[in-house]
Amino acid sequence: MVTGGAEAHQEDTFPKLLLRNAERFAERPAMREKDLGIWQAWTWKEMRGEVRNFALGLAELGLRRGDKMTIVGDNRPRLYWAICAAQSLGAIPVPVYQDAVAEEMGYVLAHAEVTFAVVENQEQVDKLLEIGETYKGISHIIYHEPRGLKNYRIGGLMSFDAVQKLGAERFSREGEDWWLGEIAKGGPADTAIMLYTSGTTGRPKGVVLTMGSVMWAAEAGNRFDKLDENDEVIAYLPMAWVGDHVLSYAQSFAAGYCINCPENRETIVEDRREIGTTYAFAPPRPYESLITQTMVRMEDAGRLKKAMFDYFLGVAKRVGERILDGEPVSAKDRLLYWLGDVLVYAPLKNRFGISKIRVSYTAGEAIGPEVFRFFRSIGMNLKQLYGQTEASVYITNQPDAEIFADTVGRPIEGVEVKIADSGEVMYRSPGVFKEYYKNPEATAAAKTPDGWVHSGDAGFFDESGQLKIIDRAKDVGHLNDGTLFPPKYIENKLKFYPNIREAVAFGDKRDFVTCFINIDLSAVGAWAERNNVVYASYQELAGNPQVYEMIEKHVEEVNRELAREERVAGAQIHRFLILHKELDPDDGEITRTAKVRRALINERYAVLIDALYDPKKTRQHIRTEVTFEDGRKGVIEGDVEIRDVKTVGREPAFKEAAE
Amino acid sequence: MPADSAAVKAASQPEVLLEVDNVSLAFGGVQAIRNVSFDIRKGEIRAIIGPNGAGKTSMLNCINGFYHPQVGTITFKGVKRADMKPHDAAAQGISRTFQNIALFAGMTTLDNIMSGRNLKMNKNFFWQLLYFGPARDEEIAHRGKVEEIIDFLEIQHIRKTPVGQLPYGLQKRVELGRALAAEPDLLLLDEPMAGMNLEEKEDMSRFVIDVNEQFGTTIALIEHDMGVVMDLSNRVVVLDHGEKIADGTPDEVKSNQDVIDAYLGVAH
């Protein structure tokens, strides 16, 4: 913290920043939410009043310093206010993933000893009531949306409005001095928030972040990309994700920029376009689905449009990134790119709602290089950063004009990074977490006494000093002949095809690489419609021979790409199958942030994996238990076809000689 | 926190909203409805069930004034009804959805639901044409109401999509939205869940219950899915070959031998 340090010490907690912003940015919008088709705005001054009333209401209900309060729901201003209100009283917010099933959520709430819950709607209230049958600790459930809850007669259940009313009454009786006093008691060593990491292994762990850590992250992030009160951000990623907490809460409080909450999950693109967001941060999945949707629609477009689209995307691929990075490009290409911008890129960006984006980040997991280049080539300043919940997000960022698809940038100021002998990336920074809640063994395993944190990722610094992450340290394996096998790398190549939604590659301690494929129901479904292929379910479409043909071609192309890269040429895919069901977070197969849980998949689909490595088998029967959205269980079973794929010889000459 | 969390159903109001008394309807020689009497109480969800051709839709068409029964009377809100047109029924507070969706396919969701407000608009054609002064204020107020319905049915994302492009389940929802836009006292739903998958049915059931609870709207529905009927409705009337064969709570109806026979058939 070189610059701005002095200022940071005056307001060292987020509630204190709220008080500052209510004076400094009084009439500027702090939050907007689209409701009934119209953007409603709250200024910083208004927001201060909302937070105060809610906090006083919570205090009346008995929320005390150190108590835990969970927050469950889509991004709503009131849920962000709840975070700030809890912090102002010294209570600890514990946001959880809103689409988690009751059992999963119950574990977190019980582990965190949550006593208060602020939730979005009836769906979540029902879930909490179900959890209440086994975990008795929750005394109050406060809901935002009253719909459907009219006839619930349950003690401790009340609306957000009712709590604010309690608070407003107390405010009119005795003013806000007590509240200001509570805020003044807070300091940088206090716990700011507990975030449960979805974790690809075992039970989720509660990452405890202090005010000081999150505050550092907020200021470091704002300084790095020069964010101020004029920026606009749309909040649509889960509030339980550290990325959203830092971007849509911490950085907004520190810089004073406005957070916009979309009308609902399906209107995000439209809402983003209306707001014209300037700064964004998302895992690869939303970027991937934008491309998928576009490619699917272009398949349905007229021939002229399609030809224009293809031609100018070709131009963009050739020169777009160089133009973005300010490198010299011939006048002819510049003209073509300009024309492409008018005809294709600008309308496309407008469609995506990203016309005004200054900086956009992707993080959470490795992004496919093709996805990454696509957005950069059409002129969006998409950059990568490397972060973790345990680091309050920021570890490394890509500075402008030093962008590569396969690196994640340099350590941001204040962060030290080193590579352990094992190849694992380790870091130390003011943003490092305090501990895993009630889990000293895990804390000790992840964090050395002098503050270095094991990231769990394998990586190295390249010649230019940028960090490269290869894969999860424990996922990188080797084939029996010693060839490097980075599963994620192969899977990402597959996932660039709009038809492929998810892929899981196998090969560690095996003779060759094989993989599972999940088709993308919207892309393949659109294809099926065009080609009069009738199907009733995902399973039926996945088993369709024509779909297999199509996917086989994709896999062959990936093999050709792999063959061109020396380090992974031996890791070409020999056999594949299309799974009979979609990998689903409800079944624990992928995390809520769409990371594959390999151990679980290895176990659950063992028969399929065995069949992939049994050359005699071309079909395999499988029976899998599934969890529906409402938590009920069911069974999907059927035969899955296994296909062999052509591989490309690494050294054809050698092969011929051998034969 | 008590574990038994099930919502407590509001005690049904005994006040009768609509009374069907001894109604018969014939098309030439075909007797569609024969001497049927039943009532619909304020605030309840009333199901009309029966095998195909039992006269359910004909009954609904009588209630909303599309058909005129030759015999018998229909009393709505205490007023015995003379022969009337459907739009009179609509003006009195009855709106409905249809077995086969009857939306304006080329119009957006918003415009379709707005069309449901038509009867509530007071300003004359001239003012509306100018879109000025009182007509404008009125339209803004109506739009506000429509937006509440859009929010209620969670269809914000298709607000400006022409309904012809929407999947079937969503079209059904839009149709419900248009019926709600008239702020009816009695809502008639003709097979609201026909052709839906399980998830869509669950969603639709949720909306029907919410409409009933939130707005206190009385609902009469025809439905073939017995699970849905038994879960949703307070009382069920069963028709077979135009005659009423049972009337009561879902449990009573379920155990009624005539109903079982009508559905499963009996050896003659």
Report the structural category of chain A.
alpha/beta
Gyration radius from CA atoms of chain B, angstroms: 19 Å
- Uncertain spans of chain B, ≥5 residues at pLDDT below 50? 1-13
Number of H/I helices of chain B? 10
Structural class of chain B, by secondary structure, is alpha/beta
Oligomer: heterodimer
Major sheet attributes of chain A: 5 strands, parallel
β-sheet strand percentage of chain B: 15-25%
Task: Tell me the β content of chain A.
Answer: 15-25%
Largest sheet of chain B: 6 strands, mixed
Q: Spans of chain A of 5+ residues with little confidence (pLDDT < 50)? A: 1-8, 651-659
CATH superfamily of the largest domain in chain B: P-loop containing nucleotide triphosphate hydrolases
State the end-to-end CA separation of chain B. Answer: 56 Å
Averaged pLDDT of chain A: 89
The CATH topology name of the largest domain in chain B reads Rossmann fold
Strand order of the largest sheet of chain A: 4-3-5-6-7
The share of residues in helices of chain A is 40-55%
Q: Provide the CATH superfamily of the largest domain in chain A.
A: ANL, N-terminal domain
Topology overview:
The complex is a heterodimer of chains A (about 650) and B (about 270).
Chain A: H1 5-10, H2 14-24, E1 29-35, E2 38-43, H3 44-61, E3 68-72, H4 77-88, E4 92-95, H5 102-112, E5 114-119, H6 122-131, E6 140-143, E7 157-159, H7 160-174, H8 177-185, E8 191-197, E9 205-210, H9 211-224, E10 232-234, H10 242-255, E11 258-261, H11 268-275, E12 279-282, H12 284-300, H13 303-324, H14 331-352, E13 359-362, H15 369-377, E14 382-388, E15 393-397, E16 410-411, E17 416-419, E18 424-428, E19 435-436, H16 440-446, E20 453-461, E21 467-472, E22 477-478, E23 484-485, H17 487-495, E24 500-506, E25 513-519, H18 521-530, H19 538-542, H20 545-564, E26 573-578, H21 598-604, H22 606-612, E27 619-627, E28 633-644, H23 652-658
Parallel strand pairs in A: 1-11, 3-4, 3-5, 5-6, 6-7, 10-11, 12-13, 13-14, 25-26
Antiparallel strand pairs in A: 1-2, 8-9, 9-19, 14-15, 15-16, 17-18, 18-20, 20-21, 22-23, 24-25, 26-28, 27-28
Helix pairs in contact in A: 2-3, 2-4, 3-4, 3-7, 5-6, 9-10, 12-15, 12-18, 13-14, 13-15
Chain B: E1 16-27, E2 30-41, E3 45-49, H1 56-63, E4 71-76, E5 79-80, H2 86-92, E6 94-97, H3 109-115, H4 125-130, H5 134-152, H6 168-181, E7 186-190, H7 198-215, E8 218-222, H8 226-232, E9 235-240, E10 243-248, H9 250-254, H10 257-264
Parallel strand pairs in B: 3-8, 3-9, 6-7, 7-8
Antiparallel strand pairs in B: 1-2, 1-4, 4-5, 9-10
